[in-house]
From TrEMBL:
One of its GO terms (biological process) is base-excision repair. The keyword DNA damage applies. Its cofactor is [4Fe-4S] cluster. Belongs to the Nth/MutY family. Keywords: DNA damage, DNA repair, Glycosidase, Hydrolase, Iron, Iron-sulfur, Metal-binding. Residues 41-203 form the HhH-GPD domain. SUPFAM superfamilies: DNA-glycosylase (SSF48150). It comes from Methylobacterium nonmethylotrophicum. One of its GO terms (molecular function) is iron-sulfur cluster binding. This is Fe-S cluster assembly protein HesB. InterPro entries: DNA_glycosylase (IPR011257), Endouclease-III_FeS-bd_BS (IPR004035), HhH-GPD_domain (IPR003265), HhH_base_excis_C (IPR023170).
Length: 241
């Protein structure tokens, strides 16, 4: 890893922490298995819809063992508001069944005693669990472990600022972006890093028509500088009165 990229990653983190006010409170306190289900529901789905689906599952089933035993059609109906419910319903049941078989129960608390790379490897050995989900389980759940999730917004900001290359997909980006940050960062610092890049992607670095003219990272972002430089003089003046 180039030292200049590590320095840039830290500069971006500090800049955005000033904008979005770190430390950022954790958004919920789910146990690891519940976080696993929540993360699987959220793939390519708006937070409001995945949240409603998760609440519907919790209201219907007394415990997650009951979800495994339920008819898949019933699970699918309960999560119908998410993207691809016909795929997610059987996947969630299969993932939970695999956890139960490998761990002996639906309790992932033992992951807390493993180093983060080993805990992530244990989770990702289960079909249907990728880097984003494994990191989310460790970081967002009550485990509160120092893992770095990367969602689509985080990924977009990282690409545009040059922290990762234009052809690096979300999955491989996890290891690259984590390696750019200090090895001794705790769970809160890594959570903050994910949250501020995600928030910046949601509020400024939009997928279409990013608001480069008001971006706090413009001097660190080659994409934004190129976009601003390509504007006609009267367009730039309108953005910077």
């Amino acid at each position: 890893m180039h030292q200049d990229l590590a320095e840039k990653a830290l500069a971006i983190h500090r800049r955005l922490c000033g904008v979005y006010h770190c430390p950022i409170p954790y958004f919920h306190d789910l146990d690891p298995v519940s976080e696993l289900i929540s993360s699987l529901l959220s793939h390519r789905t708006r937070n409001a819809e995945s949240g409603r689906a998760f609440k519907a599952l919790r209201a219907r089933f007394n415990d997650w063992d009951s979800l495994i035993a339920a008819p898949t059609e019933e699970v699918q109906a309960l999560i119908s508001g998410v993207t691809w419910p016909e795929l997610k319903a059987p996947r969630i049941q299969a993932v939970l069944r695999a956890v139960q078989e490998r761990a002996g129960s639906l309790d992932l608390g033992f992951l807390r005693d493993l180093p983060v790379p080993e805990a992530r490897a244990w989770l990702e050995a289960i079909p249907g669990i990728g880097p984003k989900t494994s990191a989310a389980v460790l970081s967002f759940s009550t485990l509160r472990m120092p893992a770095l999730p990367v969602d689509s917004h985080h990924h977009r900001v990282a690409q545009r600022t040059g922290l990762i290359g234009p052809k690096v997909d979300v999955g491989p980006a996890h290891a690259i972006l984590r390696a750019q940050l200090p090895a001794d960062w705790d769970a809160q610092a890594l959570y903050d890093n994910h949250e501020v890049l995600m928030l910046h992607g949601q509020r400024c670095c939009f997928h279409r028509n990013p608001a480069c003219g008001r971006c706090a990272l413009l001097d660190l972002c080659p994409t934004g500088q190129a976009r601003e430089g390509a504007r006609a003089p009267w367009e730039t003046a309108a953005l910077h009165p």
